[in-house]
Amino acid sequence: MKVSRKVGLVLAAVAIVAVLVVAYVVYSGLAVQRNDLNTRLSRAQTFVPALTNQKNNLQDQLASAQSTVDTSQAKFPQSAESIEYGEYLHEIADDCNVELTSLNFPEPKSVTANGVTYSVVSLTLPVSGALDDVFDFIQTLRTDDRFASTEIKTVTMGMGDGTTTTTISVDIYAHRG
Fold it and tell me: 72-105, pLDDT tens digit by residue?
């Protein structure tokens, strides 16, 4: 069976038209996807400056917070060495003309606050002397740089014969790196 030249040309034309229609449909679909992607890209690019600015602000806040943490940690000793604090307390007692009648250092306890772990030594400081000297001792504990990480919890006083007997409860905090 021989196909006439006209029929062959028609079939070829139909095939070419079919290929062109398929190519057009594929191209149209790709053009729609490209337009959609361009629209989404433009929308995303409008967020870039704001997000970059927000990122920079957060990095600044992080640096500031880290600096604050570093500064705060510098105020706390790495450990509460009993021998050092014992010497400091006896020195202050001598300077203030009070008698530190006993000094026992218990084992430190661990305390966590805001994600930072501290060791805490709770001391009871029995002192005796003139009332003004006892107040001077307490004030020195509050203001001496060596006791910057110390919190005075309670002060109990008893008076008699011109001598004040005082028990001072303190917590000494040390940062655990």
Answer: 655 554 444 556 778 888 899 999 999 988 888 7
Q: What's the token pair of residue 94?
A: 């001598």
Of the three residues 75, 104, 129, the one that is the final residue of a domain is 75
This prediction has a pTM of 0.53
Which pair of structure tokens corresponds to residue 4?
A: 């006439």
Question: Do both 69 and 101 map to the same domain?
Answer: no
Q: Could you identify the residue written with the tokens 């990122």?
A: 55
CB atoms within 10 A of CB 84: 12
Number of domains present in the structure of the chain: 2
CATH number reported for the structural domain that contains residue 150 in this entry = 3.30.70.60
Query: Cα(93)–Cα(99) distance, rounded to whole angstroms?
Result: 6
Structure tokens at 76: 């706390």
